[in-house]
Amino acid sequence: MLGIGVLAAGAWSLGSLVQAQAQTGTIRTVEIVARRFSFEPAQVAIKVGERVQVVVQAVDFVHGMNIPDLGKRYDLVPGQPTRFELHPSAPGNIDFLCDNFCGEGHEKMHGRFVITPV
Ligand SMILES: [Cu+2]
Prior knowledge:
Largest sheet: 6 strands, mixed
Number of helices: 0
Radius of gyration: 13 Å
Bound molecules: copper (II) ion
Structural class: mainly beta
Helix content: under 10%
Order of helices and strands: EEEEEEEEEEE
Number of strands: 11
């Protein structure tokens, strides 16, 4: 288990989704789109010690986002972006996958946070 802080956050305004990436203070926002059968981007690099707010938006189905390394999972409901925060303290990979069966190709729907040394 990596030393990662996760914080579930509240609703996200749809108007903010046009921002591909934004800086808010010392928090970097990373947006991930979930659709059959991929997360885009599928790989997100985060530096040790960096604070990142992840915003995940499903666009075509209620996909799931399971992050076993963190013991977290979310239902990704279209129109209701999911937000959580990552503040990794050690390098490594944090894999995530869709755990709501969404059709042929569901098995390929996964991604990774790559935590890199400073
Ligand atoms: Cu899916």
